[in-house]
Amino acid sequence: MTQLTWKTHELTVGDLAQRSGVPASALRFYEREGLIHSRRTSGNQRRYTRDTLRRVAFVRSSQRVGIPLARIREVLGLFPEDHVLTKEDWARISECWHADLNERIEQLENLRDHLTDCIGCGCLSIDKCALANPYDRLGEQGAGARRLLKSSC
After folding, report:
1. CB-based contacts of 132: which residues, under 8 Å, 6+ apart?
2. Residue 143 to residue 1: CA distance in whole angstroms
3. Which among 19, 39, 67, 126 would be 20 to 30 A from 141, CA to CA?
4. Where is the HTH merR-type domain (predicted)?
5. What does the angle CA 3 – CA 31 – CA 96 come to, to the nearest 5 degrees?
6. Regions of the chain short of the pLDDT cut 70
7. The whole model's pTM is what?
8. How far apart are CA 48 and CA 54, in angstroms?
């Protein structure tokens, strides 16, 4: 594969995949989802700016902590497509995650502390499940499966 230098202003999808460690298929998916953007050459090949590496790293890190792609897209959508994100921008984005991450931490701590009671539960809507359905709140909404996690922010 082509050796990239600091002077390289644009990356091919293969270059971006190699540098980020993310498969080219995932990068194309991210682009379809509006998480990253490219320009097309006259031969219809994708070209990414170097700052796309940071966006890809941000997407992967956010996914690792359980943030849905829709939320990631929403936050990245606060900035123009061609805007190179600054340190201040990244700080602003991270503020959006605080409440979300604190909620996830609380859910994980509850899972850890009550896992023994939940093994084998399955339905997650019975009145005994203090973790997923305290006080049988979901039963008040009728029969059938209910959402375990709610999106916020």
Report:
1. 118, 121, 124, 125, 138, 148
2. 56
3. 67
4. 10-78
5. 105
6. 1-8, 115-139, 142-153
7. 0.66
8. 12
